[in-house]
Amino acid sequence: MELLKAEFGGMKAPSITTVSIRCYIAKRQEEKAANATINRELAALKRMFNLALTCTPPKVLQVPHIPMLREDNLRTGFFEHEKFQAIMERLPDYLRSVAFFAYYCGWRKEEILSLKWDQVDLNQGIVRLEPGMPKNRQGRTLIY
Description:
The chain is mostly helical. It has two domains: 52 residues, no CATH class; 63 residues, no CATH class. The chain is built from six helices and three strands; from the N terminus they run H-H-H-H-H-H-E-E-E. The chain has a three-stranded antiparallel sheet, with no helix packed on it.
């Protein structure tokens, strides 16, 4: 958050306006920062204002509108079933079940590798991903 501090550090909170935030966004875009990176910085700035607003007494009277940028972070890297089969043939035995599960469920690597046996019911054919693990913080159930 050094960039936020460099931009807004010497300013009084009422001086940080939507206009000054838009200027910051334009500057970061000129520096070729990704929209997702800029959004994380803006989220931190918004959090700072919201914390200041909820103090007793409040440290600020209002939170400026902080526009967020569109993020196009679609998943990529999918491949056809034939390529998957070719890879499976070349994988060591200890990786095949993980690769097979990942291919068919589409869960993230961290979600799969963090699974515990109490989340798997082989008799019912159910795998549960507990709330809090996925990026969106919602649990999921896979029925196979």
